[in-house]
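INFO  loader      accepted 1 record
INFO  loader      residues=283
INFO  predictor   begin
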Amino acid sequence: MKRIARTSVALGMATALTMGMVACSPQGGEASTDDVETIVVGTSALVRPYTYIGDDDELTGYDIELLRLIDDRLDEYEFDFRTSDFPALFPGLDSGRFQVVANNLSATEERREKYDFSVPYIEAVFGIVQLEGDQVDRITDLSDLAGRTTYATPGLNYTRILEEYNEANPEEAVELVYTDLELQQQFQGLAAGTVDFIFSEEVVYQGYGIDGGLDVTFEALDSDSLVETYGTNLYSAYAFSRATDQSDLIAQVDEALQELLDDGTASALSEEFFNGLDVTPTP
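INFO  predictor   done
INFO  writer      dumping tokens
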């Protein structure tokens, strides 16, 4: 009986080895699935057109589809997208629940102290969205908004800028209404007169203002002034957890992403999602 058992084990090992050789052989054309590491990607799916649930109930958006193109070029990794509330994304990175977050994240110096980031794939244009005919004319500085009311979502880059402005200018402060409303609801609140303006990126304005059929306008703020005064980071990138060593993954993502930026694929994808706007960083 022992001889038969040992023979069965040997045959089983030989069969498994043969199958493994076939899976890894040039004729097979693909690596064994055992060699593919699943990477969990967190996203809020609430920031159209960066990341959102489409009409077909499937996750999509510029950030998502660009990362899927990167995934297509990485044989060793497979990305598994998971949706979560925005406030839970960073704790997810801290704990290692998410290895990557794709959510139009500004790669600020504060965030770089805790997380690693890919090369940037978005260069933002910040500005003020207000109703057509509003009496706030020629907005060129945050001080033009003193006494006005706007929504503030905790943790976002816009909120931090407005909070720092208020701390430095208490007598000309902007009234912040802290909320967890989705962007669509915030823009609807603007249209209803609940707030006076929304601090936004141009592409978000396109997605929720223009595409939303609202009678609103966008006034770009001085990007250089925002950078010099508030240390605003204009560049968005994918964030990586430091719970485990991901240096190899980051290197491969950066290489594939840079190729997509250099060959124009990222620009074409940007124009598809942002009504013809190319949001990729200026070379």
